[in-house]
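Quick one: co-fold with 6-O-phosphono-alpha-D-glucopyranose.
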Amino acid sequence: MCGIVGYIGKREAYPIILNGLKRLEYRGYDSAGIALFDGTDIQLCKTKGKVADLEAKAEREIILKGNLGIGHTRWATHGVPNDVNSHPHYSNSGDLVIIHNGIIENYDSLKKELKKRGYTFTSDTDTEVLVNLIEDIQINEKVKLGKAVQIALNQVVGAYAIALFDRKKPDEIVVAKLGSPLAIGIGEDEFFVASDASPFIEFTNNAIYLEDEEMAIIRLGRDVKVRKIKGDKLVAPYVQELQLNLEQIEKGGYDHFMLKEIHEQPAVIKDTYRGRLLAEKGIVRLGGLEDYIEKFINADRIVIVACGTSWHAGLVAEYIFEDLVRIPVEVEYASEFRYRNPIISENDVVIAISQSGETADTLAAIKLAKSKGAFVYGICNVVGSTISRETHSGTYTHAGPEIGVASTKAFTTQITVLAMIALRLAKAKGTISQTDFMLYLRELELIPNHVDEALKTEDKIKEISAVFKDARNFLYLGRGYNFPVALEGALKLKEISYIHAEGYPAAEMKHGPIALIDEHMPVVVIAIKSDHYDKVVSNIQEIKARKGKIIAVVSEGDTAVREMADYVMEVPHTPEALSPLVTTIPLQLLSYHIAVMLGRNVDQPRNLAKSVTVE
Ligand code: G6P
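Sure, here it is.
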């Protein structure tokens, strides 16, 4: 939700910030803005629309000069997306300029107080309240900018990553973080600030990730000074060496990041198990898990909390864990879990799944579970993210940066990690035979090849997409392990094509959705060879009898479903427990091609954001 970028140093700030905003646009893209400071004048430009709109406007309207600057790409929370509500925001004097990612929940009461003191507001945003609160403190308490920020943040309830500067201090940027991510890139006599490291990766490999409730004063010619917002303690910052490279955050010849990320899956699934899974030797070993195996296998139950696509990966894990490890599993939407007074005890293990590691509801669910004494294990993609730090232990997926808003490779790498955890635990608990254990390890190692095969059917899937692109509704059906895949397939289509789609357990169709079926309704059925194959075949017949159009995901060599279906998308055979890793591929491609044919903005679908740092 919102991307922020800042620069202070010897270079021109404009191209760095503009480029940085383009890289962060996945975080929000309803408006954008930039402020440049050349030591005397501030040039500020902002607009509703995308970063490209900002670029056009800035190049028309302002002088693009200055070695200090901040920029913002927005996902609106307070105030509709328009020019005025876009960031940066000035304080009343025009001296302070701020950008903000997050929400100030008590902004209304603070605003009333400030109005009584004569402050005026041009926007509807909570951010303009914050910058004026800081200014008010600076003036009344006669303190420096850093101190004023600190006092103000102690009065604020909510979440934020902020960056601001003061016209009177041309060599300084102040930043602070609570609940939204903030990285500081350390160059030679120059500093970068951003929501993630992508805006500065070509300039430096060294970064400090602020912890929650920390702020930093970044001054040219000095070290970055990090301190606690509460209690004022100085913190020795940990400068991390980044693993990211430029290639990973570029499209690499693909039309969209989403397509690139779909095609990266064979490689990133391999990256995710590399060094952890040695099928030949019968070893699966996850660094973060080894010390907690007893805790897991003696747990009363496992509770999985997540949102969106990560929640679907959690549903797949419910099947794998109960099947292989024989531990009861519950999968919860983090947003529901956190507010419904859940019964959680010290004997529960909670697994939190999050690509970004920043999702506000998942983070709150983790904090709640910890407060009730549960052990919390994280599965995150973004290294150093808040959730990865907030959990007791965990495993990273090695998907690399996922930039397309619709999640693809994060989903399959999450399932890869969850399958490895299940296999490791099943082995330790003795709920799997040695033969089956070895078979699963070998099959897991083969998944990248199977995904590769599934990707080769893309041309066929394009043809199917052309046939159904104008449908107004889709139904997705699957059973067992592939019920969550049906949910995920429907979500992908909704997210990027704006076609209404519903995922359902195939057998539940009779209890409602069957009423919707007629000759206009495409029904995507996951009908691979499995224990439920015959049942799914019966479901397909029920759809056919009502003239529904069947698009079936089938196993290689299938004949029965092929005869009944209008179209088939073939995937290689794999044990059912691992099948979501391959059956999801044609569904990703189907949604992608339909969205492209409809002319949608695939990487930045309307109203969505990649990282939801507000509840
Ligand atoms: C947003 C994204 C989804 C993602 C969900 C959870 O809604 O658009 O793609 O699945 O957040 O995000 P997380 O980073 O916690 O996996």
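If it helps, The chain has a mean pLDDT of 94.
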